[in-house]
Amino acid sequence: MRAACRLLAGALALALVACSSGPDRPKPKPFEAIAAPIAGKQVWSQRIGSIDFPLAVAVREGVFTVAGSDGTVAAFQADTGREVWRASVDGRIVAGVGSDGRFAAVVTREGELVVLDGGKLLWRKPVGTKVVTAPLVAGERIFVLGVDRRVIAWDALDGRKLWQQQRPGEPLTLAQGGVLAAFKNTLLVGQGPRLAGLDPLNGSVRWEVPVASPRGTNEVERLADLVAPLLRQGDSVCVRAFQSAVGCVNAERGNLQWSKNVGGTEGIAGNEQVVVGADASDRITAWRTASGDVAWSSESLLYRNLGAPQVAGPTAVFVDGEGTVHWLSLDKGEPLLRLTTDGSAPAAAPMVSGTTLLVATRNGGLYAFRPE
Questions:
Q1: Contact present, 322 and 362 (Cβ < 8 Å)
Q2: Which tens digit of pLDDT belongs to each residue from 255-287?
Q3: All residues at 6 or more sequence positions from 201 whose CB lies less than 8 Å from its CB, including other chains
Q4: 55-175: in CATH 3.30.470.20
Q5: Sign of CA dihedral 13, 209, 239, 61
Q6: How much is the pTM?
Q7: CA 341 → CA 107, 122, 154, 356, distances in Å?
């Protein structure tokens, strides 16, 4: 199982080290020839320092905000790559970055939530729980999700703790970015295999929907935590449950629209037509957003250690374990464009601002591409 090395055992957060990248893993499938290529190029690059945590790239008002493990947080203009600001939080980062365009928030290895205002240190507070999911910044509040399922809200301006909510958790959780997102006036939180809608003012539960039914003979096999990134499309929120399912929830009504049993460890992307994601063998599938029916599947990138995807216009974009960026047609899954980065795996799902797509790599490279 590809992500077994990302497991955490209870409150002790003991990392397991079994991964599936050993000698028994099949060799990657050779690249297919691109029959009908599209044009595209790298338009700028920057560096942030190595990234060894589950990074979330924040995109607001034409600016990408990123963070490196050494404590660097920086913002760049999406169209030109110009550095808007760069700061250090004086500590190694283990979760981040969340931003609403003004405030940026990360969590350090020492367990502190650090908030910046326009690149200037505003405040820092102890979290009190281990965190791997990027904080959410919304409505002048900072929300943090702990690996113990605890959700904590702070006032963004002065760091006052507003509320804390904790639900019963399973013995094992993932050291992988979980679901923490905003939907209208509801806070969306992944609670194991369930998607919960909370009141952001006080943390009370408005609704809760199971996306997957965990199966297996032991705690590892029954892990089905919801993983980021998710897809928000109208009133629908679509998400992957680790190694178990992909499903969509009506977040306005709080009911399950559909769920399909399918393996896979990375988040999904999509639009109003399809939801796309790769399974543990890197077989890519597109499900129809409205019904969950399979629209197409592709084995062109088998065993290439694909990260979470992004949808950009009429294409689905995946980055493989060697940093190669692949554009596939969204209607059929055919390869359209292939460009390279620095040879290291993706640190986050690609992010889009306007016509610019940003790829962040484990080696700390930031590569902006623009298909034509």
A1: no
A2: 999 999 999 999 999 999 999 999 999 999 999
A3: none
A4: no
A5: negative
A6: 0.93
A7: 27, 34, 37, 15
